[in-house]
């Protein structure tokens, strides 16, 4: 019987100072592969062209899910209190939005 993504996530989950800590998943290659495959699974039949990941874990998991799905990755971060898509200010039309 194989271990599910849920089981692996719970095995690697912990609390540190009242904050959820899931970083141990990234250290375990099997756990990371199973979790990423499970994250990507609902979208395999969709015709998506990119995965958007929101800062920190979203960059890591989003990038991994994009590779799993064979599509591009767009990081969504926050700089100076406003959202920045793909490293560009979405309101700066001269520079381009970074989203195509």
Describe the structure.
- This protein is an alpha+beta fold and 100 residues long.
- It has a single domain, classed as Rossmann fold (3-Layer(aba) Sandwich).
- Helices cover 37% and strands 23% of the residues.
- The chain has a three-stranded mixed beta sheet, with helices on one face. Strands 1-2 form a two-stranded antiparallel sheet.
- α1 crosses α3 and α3 crosses α4.
- The longest helix has 13 residues.
- The chain is flat.
- The protein starts with a helix and ends in a 15-residue tail after the last strand.
- The C terminus is likely disordered.
Q: Characteristics of this structure?
A:
two-stranded antiparallel ribbon; 100 residues; Rossmann fold; single chain; three-stranded mixed β-sheet; alpha+beta; 37% helix
Second-tier CATH architecture: 3-Layer(aba) Sandwich
Provide the succession of SSEs: HEEHHEHEE
Task: Give the number of helices.
Answer: 4
Strand-residue proportion: 15-25%
Here the CATH topology equals: Rossmann fold
Round the Cα radius of gyration to an integer and report it: 16 Å
- By secondary-structure content and strand pairing, the structural class works out as alpha+beta
Alpha carbon gap, first and last residue: 42 Å
How helix-rich are the residues, as a percent range?
Answer: 25-40%
CATH class: Alpha Beta
Average pLDDT rating: 83
Low-confidence parts, pLDDT < 50 over ≥5 residues?
A: 95-100
